[in-house]
Amino acid sequence: MTEFSVGEIRVAPIFDIMLPLDARLFFPDTTDGDWEPHLDWLTEAGGYDPDAGTVLFPVQSYLVRTDHHTILIDTCIGNDKKRFRGPWNMKTDLTYLHNLAAQGVGPGDIDVVLCTHLHFDHVGWNTRLDDGRWVPTFPNARHLFSTVDYEHTRAEAEGGAAGSRTFGDSVEPIVEAGLAELVASDHAVDDQLWLEPSPGHTPGHYSVRGRSAGREIVFSGDLIHSPVQCRHPEWRAEPDWDPELAKRTRRTFLEQLADTDTLAATAHFPQPSVGRIISRADAFDFRPI
Ligand SMILES: [Zn+2]
């Protein structure tokens, strides 16, 4: 998928990297039997690798151009960052910036960066390494962080928790550069795009709603990770901060969008990761556009 329109709003996914994650570890309450009915369709959709037993998560931003702003929603993994083991650790490729350039957009053209939350795969390109220092990749952008998530992540970092590196290399340098704006999770960017609270995955997690000419889209962030959670909204994702709240938020999202024309632009569903939510007897389905 290159670009599509929602009324006057133009949207393009900007791909960074594919993350293969162990299915049973990522959804820790599930058994092999729970997965069995879903393996065929999920594999066919590109969301599951049966040989490795991994769910496949694309990591991508959405470039959103409203009448007023050029916006990036989430900024993926980034380069040169120490992140556990795996393909996201100390990455050096320029795929992401090339994909942005293919849309005719350079880093200096972005005027708003929205981070749905502050996990490592949503803030990485906020900064890049320049002569040993982390500097903003998008020097003309206001970066809108939820106040609640910012304080939560800062407290984690001060406690030496896993997020501490992310905070230090991808969040705090933005604050120090004077480019961060701490906002409530219902902040309006302009008359076509605004934040909506969707807590649970993190305490201040927000999704983003766009509306133009009677058309709507919701950028879900990580309130949902896989189309298998449309069938099973109750499946807890391992990183969910408050699993019960995350389940309620996920179910509300699915119920609100079900059988409407509102598009769901997900962070990690198989590509194309944008589609509609359809109700079925006992749950929901995702139908890509
Ligand atoms: Zn994520």
Structure description:
The strands form three sheets. Strands 1, 2, 3, 4, 5, 6, 9 and 10 form an eight-stranded mixed β-sheet that branches. Strands 11-12-13-14-15-16-17 form a seven-stranded mixed β-sheet. A two-stranded antiparallel ribbon has the order 7-8. Helix 6 packs across helix 7. The chain has 289 residues and is α+β, with helices and mostly antiparallel strands. It has helices at residues 23-26, 32-35, 39-45, 95-101, 120-123, 147-158, 164-176, 228-231, 243-257; strands at residues 4-6, 9-22, 48-49, 54-65, 70-73, 112-114, 127-130, 133-136, 142-146, 180-183, 188-190, 193-197, 206-212, 215-221, 263-266, 274-279, 284-288. Bound molecules: zinc ion (ZN). Residues 119, 121-122, 222, 267-268 line the site of zinc ion.
Topology (elements, then pairings):
Blueprint: E1 4-6, E2 9-22, H1 23-26, H2 32-35, H3 39-45, E3 48-49, E4 54-65, E5 70-73, H4 95-101, E6 112-114, H5 120-123, E7 127-130, E8 133-136, E9 142-146, H6 147-158, H7 164-176, E10 180-183, E11 188-190, E12 193-197, E13 206-212, E14 215-221, H8 228-231, H9 243-257, E15 263-266, E16 274-279, E17 284-288
Parallel strand pairs: 5-6, 6-9, 9-10, 14-15
Antiparallel strand pairs: 1-2, 2-4, 3-4, 4-5, 7-8, 11-12, 12-13, 13-14, 15-16, 16-17
The chain binds zinc ion.
